Please model this.
Amino acid sequence: MKTFIEGLPKAELHLHIEGTFEPELMFEIARRNNISIPFNSVKEIEEAYQFDCLQDFLDIYYQGAGVLITERDFYDLTYSYLEKCADQNVKHTEIMFDPQTHTERGIAFSTVINGIHKACKDAKNNLGVSSILIMSFLRHLSEEEAFNTLKESLPFKDWITAVGLDSSEKGNPPSKFKNVFEASVKEGYIPLAHAGEEGDADYVWEALDILRIIRIDHGNNSLQDPVLVDEIVKREIALTVCPLSNKALQVVPDLKDHPLKKMMDSGMKVTVNSDDPAYFGGQVNQNFIEIQKALELTKKDLYQLAKNSFEYSLLNRDSKEKYLAELDAYYQQNIGK
Ligand code: ADE
Ligand code: ZN
Model:
């Protein structure tokens, strides 16, 4: 199964670029920017990555992102993730970035986006990995601040495909961002949001009906409400599920309790993703490997998950067809092995 997963062509649809910041690179960038971090070794950093909940993780994640200063830093961070995509047969990735994590510290929006965009362009040419950018608003900040970010993004509109909503979910319902999502859609951005990771099913309802999102990041707690599940199935709204993240943030006690198979069986369109791989113990292939083992997924299940990753990506129909054909050929060649 491991070999089958490693060779499987796939897309990653839920990935925070700031969450790909591996300790080694963090040390290197901190050193060149003359910034001290409160750790003495990679081992110390890894030992600090024990989380009780989402907020616990976010505190350390924002601290880590604080060493990113120059365009080159954002380039190196992004390119290093895209190299890992190439190694894992991730053909296409939809990368979230949190501009406010950086603009709040005085880093220009243009520094962030120029570095990330250039790395994506180089990776397409050098590694054959395609990517799309999702600008995420931090939901613990105000809607007014999200509006400022939207405004700052407009000169770079051609490089950004969608808007997202992330950070501390509880107490920050989707409805708080109704107006800025409406304005974002008017600008041509596709609306996406984290919902139902720690928040209840009513947050997922709000994300669907108020923000009008076309894909749900996480969505685990949708299962609290059978009417909501039916609606998600009916509207064909895909879920970007992140098994190792859910385990690390104690959204599930154990991968064996993970609802991924239940979601699939209920007709929901599920994808597998890494969320913040540097913090949660594995890249996307490791997520596939561990969830396959925990839930005894079949090759057909894995094929379906990979198929969904292309089908519910933000790519145009032609690109989807190209990747789906590649996936089908792989599946036919490897199903019996
Ligand atoms: N930002 C980075 N990772 C996140 C997650 N899993 N949930 C909410 N916000 C995030
Ligand atoms: Zn996320």
